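quick q for whoever's on today - can somebody do inverse folding on this one?? i tried earlier but teh output was garbage lol. tokens:
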């Protein structure tokens, strides 16, 4: 994939060099109770202790739990140095995101719409979003609540080593898929699916989820279609994306993790379906050809 030296998106929120520090208030309150014997041993100490008890129980009377507040994780952040490889990966993601911006802006203009660029958040281990707290083990995800994409780049290592889907274009496919969910949000598709799922049976709700995921694959294929026209795609790149799409099919993942396949529980589609819809988007580059809900 030809990406070096090309435009980088400014909509990248890189949080990989930040780590949360534990709060110190809880330790302070616990220390107060540890030194109670000392405080009781002198007049000043007794006064301090009495004041502390008054404040503590006064706060409880007003509905404030100082222990809970003080023991919550701290909000202070400490910088963590990024390696040269980390920095390069950030640049790669920013270039891919920029390509999705250019391509979808053009397509939305042709549809008489305005494309609103999403923010992509890079994080390590854990992140908070409008959709709640998430761990990196959940994999990349898109949150409609804040219209942001979230990726722990460790997932790309898993994609290569555990799922046997290496390559920079495979990684770019993952980003383009999550951008596909953003496109669904802007087109009103996501909200329609959410409403339908609320009154659907579990089986039908899963089918709607599969259709939504396959459409995001098709939208990722559209991105690849236009990326190819501007000279980004190299020989073997599309095969990398297809390998990645096949690697994260519900049937393959269930077979690997459980030794059995249960189609009624699928939420993302089979390997064959994911490959087919990505290929469909890549071959035609037309949004209307990605109607997975009626095909």
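ok took a stab at it. sequence:
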């Amino acid at each position: 994939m030809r990406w070096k030296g090309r435009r980088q998106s400014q909509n990248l929120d890189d949080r990989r060099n930040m780590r949360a520090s534990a709060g110190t208030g809880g330790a302070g309150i616990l220390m107060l109770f540890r030194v109670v014997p000392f405080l009781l041993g002198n007049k000043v100490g007794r006064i301090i202790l009495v004041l502390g008890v008054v404040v503590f129980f006064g706060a409880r009377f007003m509905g404030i739990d100082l222990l809970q507040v003080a023991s919550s994780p701290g909000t202070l952040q400490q910088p963590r140095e990024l390696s040269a490889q980390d920095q390069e990966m950030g640049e790669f993601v920013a270039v891919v995101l920029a390509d999705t911006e250019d391509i979808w802006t053009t397509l939305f203009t042709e549809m008489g719409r305005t494309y609103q660029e999403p923010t992509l958040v890079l994080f390590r281990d854990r992140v908070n979003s409008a959709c709640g707290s998430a761990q990196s083990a959940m994999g990349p995800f898109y949150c409609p609540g804040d219209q942001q994409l979230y990726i722990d780049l460790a997932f790309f290592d898993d994609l290569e080593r555990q799922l046997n889907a290496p390559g920079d274009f495979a990684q770019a496919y993952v980003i383009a898929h999550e951008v596909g969910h953003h496109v669904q949000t802007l087109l009103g598709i996501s909200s329609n699916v959410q409403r339908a799922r609320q009154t659907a049976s579990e089986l039908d709700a899963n089918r709607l989820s599969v259709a939504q995921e396959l459409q995001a694959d098709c939208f990722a294929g559209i991105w690849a279609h236009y990326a190819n026209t501007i000279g980004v795609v190299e020989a073997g790149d599309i095969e990398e994306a297809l390998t990645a799409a096949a690697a994260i099919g519900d049937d393959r993942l269930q077979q690997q993790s459980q030794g059995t396949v249960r189609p009624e529980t699928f939420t993302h589609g089979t390997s064959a379906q994911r490959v087919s819809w990505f290929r469909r988007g890549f071959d035609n580059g037309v949004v209307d050809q990605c109607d997975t809900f009626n095909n």
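fwiw Residues 20-76 have pLDDT under 50 and may be disordered. also The radius of gyration is 25 Å. so keep that in mind when u check it
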